[in-house]
């Protein structure tokens, strides 16, 4: 019989990156991305702090019902758990895990720049303090199978570059557009909305 750790290791790990001071639209996108990843039973990896990082974790935790199962609907309240209602009406992709079976409870991982795990936002399940500052960006993408970039400034751009160098699929929602010698570079896949971003990322993660 597989251990719980082994089952988590087999799930799709999707990093969600973006600014610590997002716009309202970026916050809403991050929440919806997290909710869809959560319903699919994915492991959400992020930098563990506020802004996009907090919203994606909050969205993922909103997929957890009182019975501890990933389910549709809901907005996270205190403690990160929720019942019915709330944001996010998209159908949940059914490709969150590499193995077959019903989606498992989502897991949120925050890879922190500092040394105190208590710096993590309240919706992080596993906080990993590194003391590496922004160098922890490389750990965020290396711990993932695919990356979703939402908006972002130069920190997000650095994570995109590190992800592409590591061979990770990067999906963008209103994020940086790359070009080489004046010609558009489509290495970062532009998604039309959160549901599209999640579907592309999960498909890449299970390959």
UniProtKB/TrEMBL annotation:
A Pfam family assignment: LDcluster4
InterPro entries, alphabetized: LDcluster4, LOG_family_nucleotidases
Record field: compositional bias (Gly residues): 66-89
Region (Disordered): 66-101
Origin superkingdom: Bacteria
Coiled-coil regions listed: none
GO cellular component: cytosol
Protein name (Swiss-Prot/TrEMBL): TIGR00725 family protein
Organism encoding this protein: Conexibacter arvalis
Lineage: Bacteria, Bacillati, Actinomycetota, Thermoleophilia, Solirubrobacterales
């Amino acid at each position: 019989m597989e251990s719980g750790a082994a089952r988590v290791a087999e799930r799709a790990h999707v990093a969600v990156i973006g600014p610590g001071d997002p716009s309202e639209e970026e916050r809403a996108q991050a929440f919806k991305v997290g909710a869809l990843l959560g319903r699919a039973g994915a492991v959400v990896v992020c930098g563990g702090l506020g802004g996009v990082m907090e919203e994606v974790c909050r969205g993922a935790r909103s997929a957890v019902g009182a019975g501890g199962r990933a389910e549709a609907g809901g907005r996270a309240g205190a403690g990160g758990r929720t019942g019915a209602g709330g944001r996010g009406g998209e159908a949940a992709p059914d490709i969150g895990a590499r193995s077959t079976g019903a989606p498992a409870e989502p897991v949120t991982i925050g890879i922190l720049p500092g040394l105190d795990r208590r710096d993590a936002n309240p919706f992080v399940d596993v906080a990993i303090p590194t003391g590496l500052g922004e160098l922890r960006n490389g750990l965020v993408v290396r711990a993932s199978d695919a990356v979703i970039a939402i908006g972002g400034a130069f920190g997000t751009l650095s994570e995109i570059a590190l992800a592409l160098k590591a061979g990770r699929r990067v999906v963008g929602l209103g994020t940086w557009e790359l070009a080489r010698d004046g010609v558009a570079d489509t290495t970062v896949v532009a998604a039309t909305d959160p549901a599209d971003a999640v579907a592309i990322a999960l498909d890449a993660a299970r390959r």
